[in-house]
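seq/struct pair 1
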Amino acid sequence: MHTMWKGSISFGLVNIPIKLHAATEDKDIKLRNLHNKCHTPIKYEKICPVCEQEVANEDIVKAYEYTKGKFVVLDEEDLEKLRKEKEEKAVEIIDFVRMEQIDPIYYDRSYYMSPSEGGNKAYSLLRKALEESQKVGIAKIVIRSKEQLAIIRVFENTLVMETIHYPDEVRKAADVPSIPAGENVTKKELDTAILLIDQLTTDFQPDKYQDDYRTALLELIEAKRSGKETVVPTVKETASNVTDLMAALQASIDRTKPKKQAAPKRKTASRVKKQA
């Protein structure tokens, strides 16, 4: 499993060298955009609308738009220094709380934690302590240049880090429009709804659920591939060096040919008589 972060987790004076591994993966089917005419993949270029030219990566700088059309440019050196200051610190567990106190709306990404060399005993200690206390740890960590709040918990005998949103990143439910304050629900309606819920209640078994759309899309792709309903991009014809060289030589020859002198005009019969 690919290691995406190395560092250490500490609680009190206990320090645990660990590695992070992505616990989930995006299995969305990526579809490419092709030009309908020639089936060539579309390119998305970085174009400056003022200079009207493509901009290379080395000519791009980071900036913050503090008001419409006005920016503060941030030097890459300053950003790199700030990243190192945060990333080089050990991740400290700040608090321990009960997991049921954290609403799932705060959850973001999940990462498995494995012990690095020399960290097995401390890793096992934290795992056992979390299981016995039925608590989760709250910590801060910098991942991909962003400081994130996270919880540390146990999942199937493995420590898991769940990054969670900060409170100011979660929009207020009170701002959602058109939420009814209350409706007159009859007891009969409520009892029927609860009966339906009871009939559909079961133990959570994640393996029984699947992405039906992704399965159907894969079947469609395979059916088209097997039926040879495939396309290939049109290859753009490019002139060879020999052709270009011959064309340039011929153009040069044509340009340097001496111009033909115009033949002298022949005298007409009427003009000859007048001269006689």
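seq/struct pair 2
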Amino acid sequence: MSETRLIGWPLVDLCRAPNGPRDRQLLMGEAVAVRGHRDGWAEVTAQRDGYPGFVPDAALTGGRMTHWVCARATHLYPAPDFKSRERAMLSLGTRLEVRGETDRFAKTPHGYAPRAHLAPLDVPETDPVAVAERLLGTPYLWGGNSALGIDCSGLVQVACLACALPCPGDSAEQEVALGYPLSEDAPLQRGDLLFWRGHVAWVVDPDTLIHANVHHMAVAYEPLPDAIARIEAQGDGPVTARKRLKAAA
């Protein structure tokens, strides 16, 4: 029987085994089902997408999340004072329990966060590309899910979840689960997704993509025809799917 807990650290690797390689990352406030414990590590399944792995026992906590970080990043402070020394940096997508508010700050169990960087969890975003664009310039990091580093599927997932659209963690599963297929001659529009073998990108407009990619080692814009030609030339093949997201119910 599993127990539901929350991530209490700003960012933690979801590892394949205790002290093993990173598969994905989890942010503060994300829920996990704990299936067991081993040598100071918890075997968990991420509630957001069913991704299994291990996190340190010390990274787990309890609570009730009410808000999320809607800015690219923010800081936690020990007091409602911008001149106080920050305690931690929090990434876009972090979830927090707000227990009170001042003019500029929200009080949480971990400290004070700027109100301007938070939004209620029950008010989803409507444009996933706009969410992805907040991470423009973020360094590429395989398995990354944060403003400190992110990969192609992480960029798709954080944008979808902000818009209340369920989303798997890996691009292969995203290709199957997200939206509905478009024909090769269908005009592309903002919010569509292009998939390759092992890669995914957002369509910003009919001529432009935004994606986290190794070529730029960052989240970057790229002309759509240039990206298609470059990816095929480097040996990763043609586009395997063009998908359009379904609106949230």
